[in-house]
Amino acid sequence: xxxxxxxxxKIVERKLIVYKTLVxxxxxxxxxxxxxxxxxxxxxxxxxxxxxxxxxxxxxYYEPYIILNGKYSIDYYRKSTYTVNVDEKVQEVILFNQKLxxxxxxxxxxxxxxxxxxxxxxxxxxxxxxxxxLDKTGREVPLKQLSSAPxxxxxxxxxxxxxxxAENLExxxxxxxxILRSKIVKRPMDIERIVKELFExxxxxxxxxxxxxxxFQNVKTGEVKAVEFDGVTSKRIx
Length: 238
Description:
Blueprint: E1 9-11, E2 15-18, H1 25-39, E3 53-87, E4 93-95, E5 98-100, E6 103-104, E7 113-134, H2 155-160, H3 175-184, E8 193-218, E9 224-230, E10 236-237
Parallel strand pairs: 1-8, 2-8
Antiparallel strand pairs: 3-7, 3-8, 4-5, 6-7, 8-9, 9-10
C-alpha cells in the first residue's frame, strides 16, 4: 500500500498559555552586573576593569514552546505463508476441505520430509505514543529547558500588546501536528487490510515564556554583548 496518511484523526485545539513574569527587571539587572566583566573575557583569563563595562539596556521578550502529546494505533491484517513438514510418503493433505500436494523441501535438514504451504492472514494491532516539547523552529528540546509558572488570565491580550513582535512568535498551526505525526505514525509495509487506524493528539499547547535580555558595552573597545535570563526563574540562559 502506498497511502501513508492515517484513515482517522482526532486533533484537539491548540491552547495558548503565557507565563507570568515572576522576576523584577531590577533583580535581573543586578544579576547581569555581577557577570558583566566575564562577558568580555579574552583568552579565558584576561578580564577588563569593571569601570570599563557599562550597562546599556534591558528588554523583555517571549520565547514560544509547543507541548504535544499523541498516540497512534492501527488494527490490521497481513498475509502470511506457513510451511509445515510432512512425511515424504504422504501424497496429499486435506485441510479445511482443501487438497494440498506436498512439495520437496530445499532445506538439507528436512531429509525424509516434504512440505506443504498454508496461505493465511494474521490479525495484528500496532500502537505508539509520544510526548514532545518543541521550540519555535520545530526542534525537539528537553523538558528541563521549559520552566513552570502561573499563567496570564488573558494570554491573547498579552500577545496583542507586544505589537509587531507578536507576529514573530506565532508558530504555524499545522506544523506541530505534522512533526508529531511523522514521529509516531509508522504504517507497516505488509498490510493486507486495515480494520481501524487512528492518529490522536490528546494535548496541544503553545507556551510563551518571558526572557530578559541585558546589554553591556565595553566603553574602551565599543564592543557590545548580551546576557539573557529566564523571567520566571531568573536563571541565566546559556
